[in-house]
């Protein structure tokens, strides 16, 4: 069992484990990371059902690999060389490969790069190269990655520094488990050490990992003793970087480790943000990624770790590069395949008595029930027409990807069944585990189309979409035949209402029949008293993902109206929307539910705008939250976000692309950095007209479904006066 690991150099790795009183340290000697190399003829050797070539030379290696042995032998990056038999793909048998034990964890990539440069291009294929360091140790030594919580529960300590603060002099703003009690940097460092000594935490949860070097810098400057870990010092694992993913720019902060304690950086931990420590620990056990690495891992990295474990169980090595190119297709097949899931254009307006049904974990279940996997789709050994509309074959032999996802699907279903009967800490733990698993299942489909996925393959992506399209169309046909009218549908969800003049069969009965036919459960999600589908802006066509509706009270007996109204795509769901605008929209939804009157909703807006114009709205509720995609001087337009970036530079709180800037608009018509104030600055005023526009757009989203656009809203506001008692 593992709390955390340290690479000490010279082939030594220290493993920390939980003890009843703290943690124990065990040093593993002579651990050298291993990679494998095959040559371009590798697929010929041992291919199931393939040709029978000349067997490899007597020492087990081909001539090309023997040449590589001679090249690598004696290099400083290589500890030892050997021969081992492994499978290079899921569809080949084991064959002798060159095993290379690297001198250190950092030498693995050097060996791989030198190998790729030796001989002709693509003459060699490297395997097991880019594992994360702690995952690698656990895999190569068969060490469980999760801490043994049967010994005791994990202890945590939270260190929180306001995001705009930096430098030693800011340390008095540091909070330890929510308490901020020190007046100088030296007192802060001493206070942190006292908290560490008293609580002896296993996990440090920090608002930013930059706190690690900052605290040590302050300790050195003021001569204060500090041990953030269970031994002296810290290690910088990676520097900060900016990256682009699916059109979005992200920022990855620097990463650090300390001996004997795992560090979770809240600014760089998706899973901690979404599912807390319990969700992270659940994924540690499922993925084999130790907590320190899972803390900063992306969804794709965790899914890859699961795939790596399944591949190893099947004796298959993990390629350094994507191993399967896209196969030839006719132009007509490309046209058919290059489509997403099915969507039905929603009927704009308010619909009464609406029911939502969802296919449970549709894409993961398609993968599982249809045996979709990189080595099964268009396998080459089957001549069948399995994938609807595309004609791809799917092999009868069990694919590895369903084996990866099957346990996750079953585990989440079991967890969801247990949640209603659980309470307190147990319910919190189950909800965290369910949330963590959900994100893996959500991403497994898209990852098949990711060019750098270890075992991804675009044909899998296309096949999954093809099955999904057929399933939703079949469900629509069955529901309409049973007397229901489909008012909207998108990929895995479908909304129906009773068709006029027809008798309806019970939805539960129809859904059960569809589920049996599909092999995937069509779940009855909920009933709505009403649902409003919004038009696209400046168009009468329905927006696919902008809607809101009031769920029936018996489904939510303990919640208020705000909780019972489900919203998607409108301003209240957008991260950049200020809290005040979100509150205006929320009240507008409540009044719309009670009255269905556009005039009553506009009266809400008018009262709220009165508060805004009088200057009584708290500026904290007007903060805009936007992610930065470039450096300030790279923008061609002088937007408010650019003004905020320039102001951050002036205030010494500059931001890198991918980070978030938070500001209040004080004068949108001004120029430069004076247009805004950052959230931590004193805010003497705000631009009421700018926030008024935002509030009007939020209310327009509510009323557009009944035909009121921005012009109609402003006309009503200009023609009416407040005659209610609240105005006096």
Helix content: 25-40%
At the third CATH level, what is the topology name of the largest domain?
Palm domain of DNA polymerase
Looking at the structure, what is the overall shape?
Answer: globular
Report the count of strand segments: 25
Task: Identify the CATH architecture of the largest domain.
Answer: Alpha-Beta Complex
Question: Would you identify the regions where 5 or more consecutive residues have pLDDT less than 50?
Answer: 43-58, 555-562
* Head-to-tail CA distance between termini: 68 Å
Question: Quick one: CATH superfamily of the largest domain?
Answer: B family DNA polymerase, palm domain
Largest sheet: 7 strands, antiparallel
Quote the average pLDDT: 88
State the name of the first-level CATH class of the largest domain: Alpha Beta
Instruction: Give me the Rg, rounded.
Output: 30 Å
Domains counted in the coordinates: how many? 4
| Beta-strand content bin | 15-25%
Quick summary:
Its EC number is 2.7.7.7. This is DNA-directed DNA polymerase. This protein has 728 residues and is an alpha+beta fold.
What does this structure look like?
This protein has 728 residues and is α+β, with helices and mostly antiparallel strands. The protein is 36% helix and 20% strand. It is built from 20 helices and 25 strands. The strands form 7 sheets. A 7-stranded antiparallel beta sheet has the order 16-18-19-17-20-21-22. A hairpin with a 2-residue loop joins strand 18 and strand 19 (493-498). It catalyses: DNA(n) + a 2'-deoxyribonucleoside 5'-triphosphate = DNA(n+1) + diphosphate. GO terms for molecular function: DNA binding; DNA-directed DNA polymerase activity; nucleotide binding. One of its GO terms (biological process) is DNA-templated DNA replication.
